[in-house]
TrEMBL record:
Matches recorded under Gene3D superfamilies: PRD domain
Domain of life (superkingdom): Bacteria
Originating species: Anaerosalibacter bizertensis
Domain PRD: 17-122
Protein name (database record): PRD domain-containing protein
One BP term from GO: regulation of DNA-templated transcription
InterPro entries, per the entry: PRD (IPR011608), PRD_sf (IPR036634)
Length: 122
């Protein structure tokens, strides 16, 4: 994860939107994705994922919910191999933060991760 993404997370934390535990969980999540898929997550390809994940984890800790993703939009994501590999990473986040990630949030996270991997590998 590049320095710009670290700075992005630092700014979100300083603004009070997330706490240190969420910041660390996002960094760990990104490092795991980078290692698993042999990619480098940078500002250019990963800003949407990093920002969404941080805010999603904050919403979950606050007990806030979001609407489910449009199923039509999500169909392509479900067919990607990466989609079936993501539950192990959700589990790590849940254990690290002692939370339960609702399916609606998992779907949005999956959308961002799959988009990142697809863009990076093309």
């Amino acid at each position: 994860m590049d320095e710009m993404l670290n700075l992005r997370l630092e700014l979100i934390e300083k603004s009070g939107e997330i706490d240190f535990s969420i910041r660390k969980a996002v960094i760990d999540f990104i490092k795991n994705i980078e290692k698993k898929y042999s990619i480098e997550v940078k500002e250019e390809n990963g800003s949407m994922l990093v920002t969404h994940l941080a805010m999603a984890l904050s919403r979950i800790k606050k007990g806030e919910e979001i609407e489910s993703i449009d199923e039509e939009i999500f169909q392509e994501v479900k067919t990607m191999k990466i989609y079936s590999e993501l539950p192990e990473y959700y589990k790590l986040l849940e254990e690290q933060l002692d939370i339960f990630i609702p399916q609606s949030e998992k779907d949005y996270i999956a959308l961002h991760v799959c988009t990142l991997i697809k863009k990076t590998n093309n």
